[in-house]
Each structure stands twice: as C-alpha cells, then as structure tokens.
Design goal:
alpha+beta, two-stranded antiparallel sheet, 2 helices
Length: 108
C-alpha cells in the first residue's frame, strides 16, 4: 500500500478529483495555501495499491499542467514615493507529488 500526497493548484483540483474518482481512487482533500504567490492549493491524500501508483501519476501529469502567468510585484519606489510596478512572468500549476510507503492501513 502507498500513500500519494499531491499538492495541486485550485484551478486544477476539480478536474483532477473527478478523473481520479472516475478511475476508482479514494481521495481526501485538504485546503492549503501556496508560498510565493499565496495562491490557493489543495493537498490530496490518495491511498493506493502499489500496482496502481503509476496510473495516479499519469492522471496527475495529464491534468496538472504548468502555465505561465504575468504578475506584478511591488519592487521599486522612486523619489517622491512613486510606485513602479514590476511585471514578472512566472510558472504556475503543475503538481508536487510525494509517494510514501504505508506500514499499516486500517479502515475503522
């Protein structure tokens, strides 16, 4: 038995959970917050048999694509307290996925 912990952007989570459920995977959703952009993320806990781990990864890779977005960072103040926004292109989306061995599993 394996435990997959997948941290995905909120924009992708609905489609991902639908597809995982459609493929008979049980999921627990936890709300979480990203660091750099403080954007909404969801952490999924997925208990799965060892033989089905690759199928979960295939689904995640298909749905959680990296996208480029332009955001404005407050970076410069000139004399006279003039604010100059600094546009920056960053990558968002994708997923961070951990797979752990489960020593013991019980459903009580």
């Amino acid at each position: 038995m394996k435990l997959i912990i997948a941290i995905v952007q909120d924009d992708d989570v609905s489609e991902l959970t639908d597809k995982l459920t459609e493929n008979k995977f049980s999921i627990t959703r936890l709300a979480s917050t990203g660091g750099f952009l403080k954007s909404g993320n969801t952490t999924l806990l997925i208990g799965v048999e060892k033989e089905r781990v690759e199928k979960v990864y295939e689904i995640i890779e298909k749905i959680c694509r990296v996208r480029k977005v332009t955001t404005t960072l407050s970076s410069m103040t000139l004399t006279g307290d003039t604010y100059v926004p600094y546009p920056m292109e960053i990558k968002v989306g994708g997923a961070t996925v951990f797979t752990l061995d489960v020593e013991r599993y019980e459903q009580i």
